[in-house]
Amino acid sequence: MQLDDYSLARQKALAGEYPHQPLKGQIALVTGANSGIGEACARHAAAAGATVAINYVTMPEKADAIVSDIAGAGGLAASFRADVSDEMQVLSMYDEIRARFDTVDILVANAGLQRDAPLEAMTVMQWDTVMNVNLRGQFLCAREAAKEFQRRGPRTVSRALGKIICMSSVHQLIPWSGHVNYAASKGGVMLLMQSLAQELAGRTIRVNGIAPGAIATPINRPAWDTPAAEAKLLDLIPYNRVGVPDDIGRAAVWLSSDASDYVVGTTLFIDGGMTTFESFSTGG
Ligand code: BGC
């Protein structure tokens, strides 16, 4: 299969999915928004009426292309460079977003990466890079979002004071040999999300997670980009198709809209049934 690439034409067409503009008037920050799942979340949020802050750390041209597609489709977005694992950069990014868009209503804490290695070969650098981006990055961005929601106070655009979506993975549940840093980071994201939800719900801040399964993006290209690899991957997916970024973008819109106003502290698994552990259907 191929990477599902977006274009201006598709950005315009996406608006058709959201005739009621559920995020109208809201500002959404999506981290790691210039590729893969983050890009889908940003494009869907814009199509649903949000103004979107596109965070990126490398490939500024990809962030700019998304901003220009959103503008071309009649929306509003801007790109903000920051390494989410760096506290000063995160603080500056929030300052820049406030200067540009006044506030933030929705955080999609999506930025994440893999640095895979068998245990014996895994370096401290590989461990730290994954933990710092995937876990510390979500903590820093969520902390600043919660502060911003409370600083600015209630708005009429949503019943909640703010919404935070933590991008997790099926590997918050499924152990993953050869990827212990990644699985540990996503296990951490699960309890980060649940604890944040508990701490912030009384202030009408909703925190939830999304746990994608195998979604075809650059992060897992070797797992789907040849017919043999795709066939092997499909053995793990009862629904028998590899996911696409749109599958997650749609869910992120719902989870950040008032349609999910009573949803707090939960993880939405979007995995084609991967977490039904299909291999047990004939064994165990
Ligand atoms: C990982 C992918 C993997 C998928 C299913 C994701 O969280 O980033 O590389 O294909 O989980 O195993």
Would you write up a description of this structure?
The protein is of the alpha/beta class and 284 residues long. It has one domain (8-269): Rossmann fold (3-Layer(aba) Sandwich), CATH 3.40.50.720. It has helices spanning 8-14, 36-47, 60-72, 87-101, 124-152, 180-200, 227-234, 245-256, and strands at residues 27-30, 51-56, 77-81, 106-109, 162-167, 205-212, 267-270. A 7-stranded parallel sheet has the order 3-2-1-4-5-6-7, with helices on both faces. The longest helix has 29 residues, at 124-152. The radius of gyration is 18 Å and the shape is globular. The mean pLDDT is 97. The structure holds beta-D-glucopyranose.
Compact summary:
With 284 residues, this protein is an alpha/beta fold. It has eight helices and seven strands; from the N terminus they run H-E-H-E-H-E-H-E-H-E-H-E-H-H-E.
Under CATH, the topology is which? Rossmann fold
Shape: globular
Helix/strand-derived category reads: alpha/beta
Main sheet: strand order: 3-2-1-4-5-6-7
The overall strand count is 7
Summarize the helix and strand pattern as letters.
HEHEHEHEHEHEHHE
Count of all domains: 1
Helix content: 40-55%
CATH architecture: 3-Layer(aba) Sandwich
Instruction: Flag low-confidence runs.
Output: none
Beta content comes to 5-15%
CA distance, first residue to last residue: 32 Å
CATH superfamily: NAD(P)-binding Rossmann-like Domain
Total helical segments = 8
Determine Rg (CA atoms, Å): 18 Å
Bound molecules: beta-D-glucopyranose
**Main sheet specs:** 7 strands, parallel
